[in-house]
Amino acid sequence: MIRTENLTKLYTTDEVETTALNKINLSIQPGEFVAIMGPSGCGKSTLLNVLGLLDEPNSGSYYFLDKNITGLTEKQRSKIRKQNIGFIFQSFNLIDELNVFENVELPLQYQGVSASERKEKVMTLLERFGIGHRAKHYPQQLSGGQQQRVAICRAIAGNQKLIFADEPTGNLDSTNGQEVMKILSGLNQSGTTIIMVTHSEQDAAYANRIVQLKDGMIVN
Amino acid sequence: MIRTENLTKLYTTDEVETTALNKINLSIQPGEFVAIMGPSGCGKSTLLNVLGLLDEPNSGSYYFLDKNITGLTEKQRSKIRKQNIGFIFQSFNLIDELNVFENVELPLQYQGVSASERKEKVMTLLERFGIGHRAKHYPQQLSGGQQQRVAICRAIAGNQKLIFADEPTGNLDSTNGQEVMKILSGLNQSGTTIIMVTHSEQDAAYANRIVQLKDGMIVN
Ligand SMILES: Nc1ncnc2c1ncn2[C@@H]1O[C@H](COP(=O)(O)OP(=O)(O)OP(=O)(O)O)[C@@H](O)[C@H]1O
Ligand SMILES: Nc1ncnc2c1ncn2[C@@H]1O[C@H](COP(=O)(O)OP(=O)(O)OP(=O)(O)O)[C@@H](O)[C@H]1O
Ligand SMILES: [Mg+2]
Ligand SMILES: [Mg+2]
Fold first, then answer.
1. Which residue stretches of chain B are H helix?
2. Which band of pLDDT confidence, cut at 50, 70 and 90, is reported for residue A201?
3. Do B176 and A40 count as a contact with CB atoms less than 8 A apart?
4. Residue A124: phi, psi to the nearest 5?
5. Could you identify the atom of ligand 1 that is nearest to the CA of residue B43?
6. What mean pLDDT is predicted for residues B171-175?
């Protein structure tokens, strides 16, 4: 489903060149639940962004659903991503001009789901995460953990094949965090492939495999 | 040092009125290390913002360093805050137009510290947190945990009486998180009063007291 060969990503800023990903070779099968762990700054978000088609590698190859992604335009990558991936960002990336309901219904609108069906799906999700009463509010009016839960709802609303989660419980107390992990685990049981960056050993325990990153390289 | 009486904070949005803080009575002595815990959305950040003079209560009183804060103008509160408090925000609130070095030296500039002394203090701090090599970079070019460490450096650069920390290790792996907690603990040992919101039992263990919040009220 996902296969990389010598995937490399560099950032160059003034005098400093950072090798964020250094010849990564990774293979992920459909239905897996993979946890990516490693020290702060070691390349986890960068890896998730490249795998999630938000960013391009500088060298190496990336096959997504057997399609060679290298050389595709940003528009082509964006289309494949919207059709297949739900993404939970480390800093949420909610749209400030849209309220909570509108943020979460975005993937459903893209899929052409009817308004009444969107309403039912979105409200069910928000209720499930304990933020149904916030549907009409704007992201800036929510607590950190409430914003994180909106980001999670948006990622899973589209019922897509893959969910990419970048530290999905970082702003949540343990009860809410466990609730999120149970829901992700349930999705995985019904076939969703999940790739989750986490600092939490507790969350990583829900995965079937842990990939350890260090200085842009896989170390296990 | 800090004393509140029936501190209350309400938010009103369209039809929904949220009582974020409900008659809070809290007393904190100089030199304490207080952890504030509770479920997502229960009022922790709101409490920290009011205690940290970033926000005003709707009713009740707040005495900061024996001074009644109620009724002061925003300008007056801001002056008292800048002179006494280092604040670590849940979403970092770094200034995008300034590089890492410039972000951290802000409190020292406010205090009128000389340029050479600022340079020494800032670089020592950045090195200590493992991000000295990022001094010339901008916040958007850093990983989530690196941004969090910049926010922490900025809060402690000014050597102030009090540090308010809103989930300071949420984006950090356990090694980096422990390093942060050791540094905060060290500051507390030398007299700094620390008020820290956290979801982590491990971090809370560094505190001398835990305050439990639920639905805007203290429950222990
Ligand atoms: N500007 C606002 N308008 C309306 N409601 C608000 C606003 N800011 C915060 N709230 C609400 O006040 C309550 C307390 O928010 P607060 O940010 O203090 O929670 P918290 O305990 O820090 O949560 P978390 O652990 O998720 O960060 C929440 O229900 C939140 O939705
Ligand atoms: N736009 C950029 N320009 C320069 N360097 C960058 C840029 N974005 C990221 N980096 C660097 O690339 C490295 C990897 O960053 P990444 O965000 O992938 O780390 P991470 O493992 O997710 O860290 P964290 O656990 O702190 O979130 C870091 O050293 C970071 O500073
Ligand atoms: Mg990251
Ligand atoms: Mg908060």
1. 44-51, 74-84, 100-110, 115-128, 144-157, 174-189, 201-204
2. very high
3. yes
4. -60, -45
5. 18
6. 94
